[in-house]
Amino acid sequence: MVRIGLLGCGNVGRIIAMHQDGFEVVAVFDQLPDHAVALAELTGSQSYSDFDEFLTAGFDICVEAASIAAVRAYALKTIEKGKNLVLLSVGALADTPFREHLIAVAQEKKKKIHIPSGAIMGLDNLKVGQISYIESILLRTTKSPESLGMNVTSRTLAFKGKAHECVKQFPKNINVSVAIALASTHEVDVELWADPAVDKNIHEIFVKGEFGDSYTKITNLPSPDNPATSYLAALSVLSLLKNIDSPLVIGA
Fold first, then answer.
1. Dihedral of CA 158/117/64/20: which sign?
2. Coil, strand, or helix at residue 215?
3. Number of domains in the chain
4. Would residue 38 count as lying in a domain?
5. Residue 159 φ then ψ, to 5°
6. Is residue 25 located within the same domain as residue 62?
7. Are residues 99 and 142 in the same domain?
8. Cα 50 to chain centroid, rounded
9. What percent of the chain has pLDDT over 70?
10. Distance between CA 145 and CA 176 in Å, rounded?
11. What is the pLDDT of residues 153-176, one digit of tens each?
């Protein structure tokens, strides 16, 4: 049984902790200690208010379900302590020096950094870009104006440009584009649309390359307990953990 330390006890962390299958959550940490205590009481795990103490708990993998800021603050410490890492807030890896240093330390410590598919599907096949020519990748994301902090009455283009530029204006909306870029090792063009007619997050991915063309559309239902959170993102972490030690590896 894989033993998990959970970094982040909000909506996604709660979904992970309450659906343990093939893994066991033994330790939980949150910058809001009462959140950690409440989740620990529900799951029978141990809560921690000090991160260094949390890292001494006997778990194999630290699962981050918190924020980009949490990755920047705690990911390196986690790897240095000899823990494998699952990152949901992959947008933190848009910072190239930070990413390269984190990977270098993981190599030195012989540890793995796992990135689940998150709010999209098909991340595994985008890795063909590592061995085959990719001409272009476009991510078109459509969200409600409220989720983008905008007040518009018709469909409006909020951003158009490269993924690394989007982080400056919309730092909470870069996880998907960064995951695509890392998987494909190709620069990602981003269109971010605000549409008052939608109440779900919609991701469309257009890829052209040596293999042919692909188009993927994902319409994300929100998590049952938090409309701001993608349920698919939480499910992708559960899928990764369920299969992490399986002798049969599919789509990796």
1. positive
2. strand
3. 2
4. yes
5. -155, 140
6. yes
7. no
8. 23
9. 98
10. 18
11. 999 999 999 988 888 888 888 999
